[in-house]
Design goal:
Distance between the termini: 45 Å
Number of strands: 12
Largest sheet: 8 strands, mixed
Number of helices: 11
CATH topology of the largest domain: Rossmann fold
Structural class: alpha/beta
Strand content: 15-25%
Shape: elongated
Number of domains: 2
Helix content: 25-40%
């Protein structure tokens, strides 16, 4: 029998056999590291420079942290500071003081993932027996003096206490990511939590993105009848953000050029790579 040609082997039942992107990816596994032009290499080196674990140094609180910690003894406090500047330190030190005095605290976040992270952090800091967690799908050590949970769960506990004619069993409330009050779909949960929390319970609100902090504080003051201290930590993020684009061929591009505009090389890569749209 005559041997089929390579061209004939590409057909089955009159239909051409196509290679998929997955086939190409499978064939290209174990490919060599991408090559860079000198200009690209300099850009990538600059992007990655300085990344790593810094040398340990003695911790010294910033002025805004010590001011907030002193104010929270007698007032509600709204702290606005960039991400990574140490807002959680304020909450942690106040929680430490409360636990030493056999008092109770609630730490709320809008996200289950963040709640789980804080739960692990605080268990390591204060001991497993002192920390519990309450989310929609997780309930552990609910009688602990420090409860970490989603804001919805805290709000529901306030509602339950009102229906039963009792007080919410906490002395201190931390509302992390407090800017969620402006969220169209979930903001009412933060409003209700603030409105219905008894004035005896001091509130610490933490956020990196509250733009109208004075107006926000005035509303809390009028609603709760308490003093409210606003502490703004101005300036850039202590931990710099860098964004990059990792191409399917493992080339790394800074997302923004030196002019602050979108890196043109990324768009050029997308146009060259006809399979980019199917693989991204």
């Amino acid at each position: 029998m005559a041997r089929k040609s390579k061209r004939q082997n590409n057909y089955r039942g009159g239909k051409k056999k196509h290679h998929t992107g997955r086939d190409r990816d499978r064939r290209s596994s174990g490919q060599a590291a991408p090559s860079y032009s000198p200009a690209q290499l300099r850009a990538v080196e600059e992007l990655l420079s300085g990344i790593g674990t810094p040398e340990p140094t003695p911790f010294v609180p910033d002025d805004f942290q010590t001011e907030a910690l002193a104010a929270i003894e007698t007032e509600d406090v709204l702290v606005t500071a960039p991400t990574g500047s140490g807002k959680t330190w304020i909450a942690r030190e106040e929680i430490r003081r409360l636990l030493e005095q056999n008092q109770r605290a609630w730490y709320t976040t809008p996200l289950k993932a963040l709640t789980n992270s804080k739960y692990s952090e605080f268990r390591e800091e204060f001991g497993e027996e002192n920390v519990g967690i309450l989310t929609g799908d997780r309930k552990e050590n609910s009688g602990a003096p420090l409860i970490v949970g989603t804001t919805e769960i805290y709000r529901n506990q306030v509602f339950d206490a009102l229906r039963e004619g009792t007080n919410i069993d906490t002395d201190f409330l931390i509302l992390d990511e407090a800017h969620y009050l402006a969220d169209d779909y979930r903001g009412h949960v933060w409003e209700e939590s603030i409105i219905l929390t008894p004035p005896r319970v001091r509130i610490l609100l933490l956020s990196a993105t509250v733009g109208n902090s004075g107006e926000f504080a005035a509303w809390i003051r009028d609603t709760r009848g308490t003093k409210v201290r606003v502490i703004d930590r101005a300036g850039d993020r202590p931990v710099e953000l860098r964004a990059a684009f990792l191409a399917p061929n493992l080339q790394l591009f800074p997302l923004l050029g030196k002019d602050g505009q979108f890196n043109r090389q990324i768009e050029q890569f997308r146009r060259k790579d006809r399979n980019y749209g199917r693989r991204r």
